[in-house]
């Protein structure tokens, strides 16, 4: 099969190429083999290619196959598996920029009703991050009627967080940096503030000022960008800041004077979906159930960047677009056509 195998971290994304690699072997007897049709390009993939993610210092070191989120069709499964060849699935595991991947079935979900494989790939784990961190007991415990500010609102995590907060009955304001992204986020039915205009934090407070609260400010900030200082300026007294990621920091972490937390009696809550899933698997299952329900009733709809990327050879171009902040929602690579895969599979049975 073809795959983008990283033998060393790269400085130039254009140097990433798909080469011939052995078909993945199941790591465990329960692994399911999937013919990948789609893979997404996330901010983490770009960091992994360059070796800049915190995981690259510990467990994710070359050689490895790039790509973290995929959708596709089950090609082989053990007899006792819940999945059968031909089932449409999506999941998150290292090795998605390839024609095939073998994963434990607990990492898979069926494509939600009403979704295509492309849309399921764009949903990925973003719904879980939003549901668990915004609504969960270990997160912000968002209540109906509260206000939520979503930074990086047009990004892969942001577009889903806006929808999850809205479905939870919150007033949602998205923060974006361009006219095109403003259009995308307004399309989700939420208010927008542009961070490329000076004093944008003041605009957030002005929007949320009312008779009872003259200072203004939101109850919760969802921050996948790494701007806790601005988040603290945007919350009301006693508000919560969810630290989700660092998409705007280019690897340099923010230093915040601790008195800014005290002055607002703020709660700053870090949330890591992957680690929570490993430590609290039963809670993670409940989060997945909630996300699947929201997806199937249309409360959460994936947002797919409208540029087409076909084949593994388009991965470097798509990564450049994500890294340059051009893409919105999720940039999706089409690795194989669903109809052709199913035809191939039916012929191989004959
Ligand atoms: N905690 C978790 O469990 C978890 C799980 C998955 C991912 N993450 C992390 O979450 C972060 C976001 O991931 P993603 O996939 O959503 O990334 P993404 O799709 O690339 O989106 C990031 C967004 O951030 C905005 N942005 C970039 N620089 C900015 C800046 N200087 N100021 C304000 N906004 C800026 C961009 O929009 P504009 O063009 O509007 O600037 C972009 O839309 C990453 O750091 C990732 O590692 C965390």
UniProtKB/TrEMBL annotation:
Molecular function via GO: oxidoreductase activity; zinc ion binding
InterPro entries, per the entry: ADH-like_C (IPR013149), ADH-like_N (IPR013154), ER (IPR020843), GroES-like_sf (IPR011032), NAD(P)-bd_dom_sf (IPR036291), Quin_OxRdtase/zeta-crystal_CS (IPR002364), Zn-ADH-like_protein (IPR051397)
Superkingdom of origin: Eukaryota
Domain Enoyl reductase (ER): from-to ranges: 11-333
PANTHER family: QUINONE OXIDOREDUCTASE-LIKE PROTEIN 2, SHORT-CHAIN DEHYDROGENASE/REDUCTASE
Full protein name: Enoyl reductase (ER) domain-containing protein
């Amino acid at each position: 099969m073809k795959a983008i195998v990283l033998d060393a971290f790269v400085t130039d994304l254009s140097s990433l190429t798909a080469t011939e690699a052995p078909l993945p072997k199941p790591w465990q007897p329960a692994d399911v083999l999937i013919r990948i049709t789609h893979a997404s390009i996330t901010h983490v993939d770009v960091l992994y290619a360059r070796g800049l993610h915190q995981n690259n210092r510990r467990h994710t070191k070359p050689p490895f196959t790039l790509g973290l989120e995929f959708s596709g069709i089950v090609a082989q499964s053990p007899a006792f598996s819940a999945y059968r060849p031909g089932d449409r699935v999506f999941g998150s595991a290292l090795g998605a920029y390839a024609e095939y991947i073998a994963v434990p079935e607990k990492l898979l979900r069926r494509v939600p009703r009403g979704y295509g494989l492309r849309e399921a790939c764009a949903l990925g784990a973003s719904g879980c991050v939003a549901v668990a961190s915004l609504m969960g007991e270990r997160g912000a415990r968002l209540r109906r009627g509260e206000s939520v500010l979503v930074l990086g609102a047009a990004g892969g995590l942001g577009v889903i967080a806006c929808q999850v907060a809205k479905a939870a009955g919150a007033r949602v304001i998205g923060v974006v940096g361009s006219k095109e992204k403003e259009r995308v986020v307004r399309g989700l039915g939420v208010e927008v503030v542009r961070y490329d205009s000076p004093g944008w934090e003041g605009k957030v407070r002005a929007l949320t000022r009312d008779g009872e609260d003259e200072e203004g400010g939101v109850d919760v900030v969802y921050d996948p960008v790494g701007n806790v200082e601005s988040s603290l300026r945007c919350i009301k007294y006693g508000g919560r800041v969810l630290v989700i990621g660092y998409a705007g920091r280019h690897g340099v972490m923010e230093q915040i004077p601790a008195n800014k937390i005290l002055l607002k009696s703020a709660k700053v809550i870090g949330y890591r979906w992957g680690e929570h899933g490993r430590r609290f698997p039963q809670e993670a299952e409940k989060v997945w159930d909630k996300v699947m329900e929201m997806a199937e009733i249309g409360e959460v709809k994936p947002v797919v960047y409208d540029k087409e990327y076909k084949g593994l050879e388009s991965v470097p171009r798509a990564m450049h677009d994500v890294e340059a902040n051009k893409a919105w929602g999720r940039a999706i690579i089409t690795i194989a056509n669903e109809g052709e895969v199913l035809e191939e599979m039916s012929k191989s049975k004959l």
